[in-house]
Each structure stands twice: as structure tokens, then as C-alpha cells.
Amino acid sequence: SCKKDQSELDAQIITDYIASYQLDAQEKENGLYIVVEEEGNGVFPTLDSEVTVQYKGYLSNDKVFDQTDGSPVTFPLNAVIQGWQIGLPYFSEGGSGKLLIPSELGYGSQKAGDIPANSVLIFDIQLDSVH
Q1: pTM exceeds cut of 0.85
Q2: Do residues 56 and 117 lie in contact, with contact meaning Cβ atoms separated by under 8 Å?
Q3: Contact criterion met (CB below 8 Å) for 124 and 31
């Protein structure tokens, strides 16, 4: 099916990206990869948490589509894309790293703003606090 092909393409894009930047990435469920750069020493968020984060989101060609520019943002974790819902709970307060999100856990076959359909999304995240 098409869907399988897209997930294979996404997996290839993500593994190529990891290789080219020599990232120490761990594969988690559903093709999501995470890189923990800073362990953090606080609470781990759950889907019911509100989180305060700083982030930069970009495509695998390093084109930035969204970032917080120094002011953290707070939102309920259950209100964002699935890749964040799965990936963020691997970080605790004060932690930082990357989420490498296959399109299926992002916006899928929908275009979203500056993000083309079927895009792998990469986020540098810093988890400031969990509420």
C-alpha cells in the first residue's frame, strides 16, 4: 500500500539524517527517533501534562518552519502532533534534545503552513517545565 511506502521513505530520510549528522538517536515506537542531549532532572510529562518548551522545528533539508525564538511556549501535550505526544515524555524537566518525526506522526499527507505534505519533521526541544 501507499502508506507503507511513505513510512519506508520517512524511515530512510530519518536514518540518512541521523547518519549525516552522526546523531546518537534511539528508535521509539512508530518510527519516531529521539536524541537525548541533556538528561534533565525533573518530572517527566504525561499526556495529561501542560509543558513549557522552547523549540525549533525544521525539515530534513534544514529549512526551519517554526521556532520559539527565546520565549518559551506552554501548551497541553495532548493538543499537539502525535510525534510530540510520543517523544516528549522521554525527556524530563530541564532536558533537551531532538525529535525526528515520521510524517505519519506529524501532519501526514496534509500540507500545514510551510510544511509540505508527507514531511519528516525534526525538532530541537528544550523542556523547561511540566505542570
Answers
A1: yes
A2: no
A3: no
